Amino acid sequence: MKKLALFLMFILAGTSLVLAAPPRQSFIKVTVTPNHADWCYNCGEKPVFEVSVTDCSNAPIKDAKIYYEISEDFLAPLEKGDLVLKKGTHKLSGHTMTKPGFLRCRVWATVDGKKYDECATAAFEKEKIVPKTVMPDDFDAFWQKEIAKNAKIDMLPQLDLVPEKCTPKVTVYSASFQSFQKGSRIYGTLCVPANYDGKCPAILIVPGAGCRSRAGYYTEAEKGFVTFEIGIHGIPTVMKDERIYETLKNGSLLNYPSANVDDKDNYYYKRVFVGCARAIDFLASLDFVDGNRIGVMGGSQGGALTITTAYLNPKVKCGAAFYPAMCDLTGYLYDQGNAWPYLFKNKALATKERLETVKYYDVVNFARGVEQPMWVSYGYNDLVVCPTSIQGAINSMPKKPVLMIVPQSRHWTYPEQDSARSNWMMDKLKK
Comparing C-alpha atoms, which of 15, 43, 19 is closest to residue 382? Predict the structure, then answer.
């Protein structure tokens, strides 16, 4: 039994780097292919999307029924309809964009009563996308004040060994520190190389949305890097009963991204942003960490927190973000995508107070001040975080980041993307 438990632990450790795995192949395959190999177009060009429905041997499914929509990124359809593919294929065209952005063709096929879907997204002069968010005059002062206030609060760090998670190569701790106010703590899973010699480089892993345990990042730790995977909700990340996380996720934390959004001084993410910045200070304070070699990475909400943390703490040497959320939060009000967490999906919610708050929390405004080397990866087909908002943030960075764009990917990563991220970051953190 102990051998089985150890085996499962190693499996979990080996897969912990995968932010979100691509879906498995199904027996029926829907394919949507734009007529430019790079999926990129000039404004005014009309892409042609070839749709096919095949089985697992790539044989066309005759008389396949499809429903399709063609729309600008996260906006209402420009065209939609039902078709029967007599020969298993069809070409859709006739639409373009006159401004920089993304045009998506999404297709649902029904075969033997079961639905399958796929999409393809054409990019129109994406390097020219300009975010709609406004930079407040006191943006820097606002956040400098919050960081200074947090610095006056005793960190009171705590490390508790978690023997059942340790391996011969990695020592694992449940770690925490005080942040934001007395009694409020940030928790995380700290992985330390078992036989470190001197001071190690370190990587802070900031979380995607939701609430769950944090398995810890073993792969880099086995290569000599201290890794610290944190949660943001003030609860330990190694509780054995996963039901606790589920209860919180579906209860008190259900709508946390919009909690107190009417008040910029009490919005939920203030504590989160300064807590992530302090996590860098926590790592730098450890006697086995080289404070000059600390990176930060994450995906989705974690991609957003990667950028904000790099801006708020100059100790960050480099950052890597997968499909960062919370970018250009007001873009939807101008028919330019709808950035997670979709605060203005109902445009009636765009009150004066909320519009004032989001200026200080829009990741684009942090991106405008990031000076460190950055690595960013995303896909044009992302249906959770709109690519228009991601590219707008990229275009706002004063230094061009290293980009790994995988057009066909959605809100997940291929193993090759994560390997590229890992190799880039480890190289940047070498002496």
Answer: 19
Contact between 211 and 245 under an 8 Å Cβ cutoff? The reply is yes
Residue tagged active-site, from 382, 396, 418, 422: 382
Please indicate whether residue 422 is annotated as part of the active site. Answer: no
Residue with tokens 């294929």: 89
389 has catalytic annotation: no
126-130, 195-199, 400-404: least confidently modelled range: 195-199
pTM (two decimals):
0.93
Output 44-47 pairs: Cβ under 8 A, ≥24 positions apart: 44/96, 44/98, 45/96, 45/124, 46/93, 46/94, 46/95, 46/96, 47/93, 47/95, 47/96, 47/103, 47/122
Within 10 angstroms of residue 284's Cβ, the number of other Cβ atoms is 16
Supply the DSSP string of 79-110, one letter for each residue.
EEEEEEETTSEEEE-----SSSEEEEEEEEEE
Instruction: Check if 411 is active-site.
Output: yes
As given in the structure block, the two tokens for residue 72 are 């600008």
Largest CA distance in the chain: 70
* Contact of 339 with 332, CB cutoff 8 Å: yes
CA dist 272 and 145 (Å) reads 15
Of 18 and 362, the one with more pLDDT: 362
Residue with tokens 């020969």: 87
Catalytic option among 16, 300, 389, 422:
300
